[in-house]
Design brief:
The chain is α/β, with parallel strands linked by helices and 243 residues long. It contains eight helices and twelve strands. The protein has a single domain (2-240), classed as Purple Acid Phosphatase, chain A, domain 2 (4-Layer Sandwich), CATH 3.60.21.10. It has helices at 13-23, 44-54, 62-67, 78-90, 93-100, 130-134, 219-228, 233-237; strands at residues 2-6, 30-33, 57-58, 105-108, 111-114, 146-149, 157-160, 165-168, 172-174, 180-184, 198-204, 209-215. A six-stranded mixed sheet has the order 3-2-1-11-12-9. A six-stranded mixed sheet has the order 4-5-6-10-7-8. The two termini are 33 Å apart.
Amino acid sequence: MRYGIFSDVHGNLEAMTAVRKGYEEEQIDRFVCLGDMVGYGANPNEICNIVRDMADVVLLGNHDAAVSGRMDYSYYYDAARHALDWCARRMTPENLAFLKGLPYTHREGDLEFCHGSPAVPQEFEYIFTREKARELLPSWDRMAWVTFIGHSHLTRCFALTPNEVYDVVASEFELQQDYKYIITVGSVGQPRDYDNRSCCTILDTDTWQFRYKRVEYDIESAKQKIIDAGLAYNFGARLLVGI
């Protein structure tokens, strides 16, 4: 089985179109979206339409929850609140119902999928340091062998033993039975790992090889759409440098 696992599209149609095309050469059997289809970018409905058609499993991200009325986002900073309000006003009834019905987590055998930390999925906590990953050690016995998350827009991977956490620094690696893994899949629509290319991932369960895939896309068009929509300039400008 070959999984295509992606997250954090954030309304970036140019990036999602490029990733979908890039996946065509990978012989993917099953697609999983880890959430945050909306927010920041100018094409939330188009992204929801693509993901609804493409993915076998779709999970709820914090921006999806905010836009669909499933969480309070009054504490978000002004530009983020404005973007979420902007999205909420433009969602079609079909896509709003889609977001309202999404689950927080999904598990398939040894694999678990969620947007943020699996400890309390509805709180959307970040895991982007070894210290944060270490907080999961008391839950070692309940954890899946491999947990895939999004949320941070980074490409951080951690290998866990019952007592310690190790960084996995590689764009491709083979999963080992001696560890449990937390794998952050990066962001399709707003990468923040200083690589401005769109990011998605592939897992082959026949060989247990995991790989990050980077895809070039029309960043200038995505940026200009954000600016033209009246969303925060920085949401577009940061796409140029991947931060």
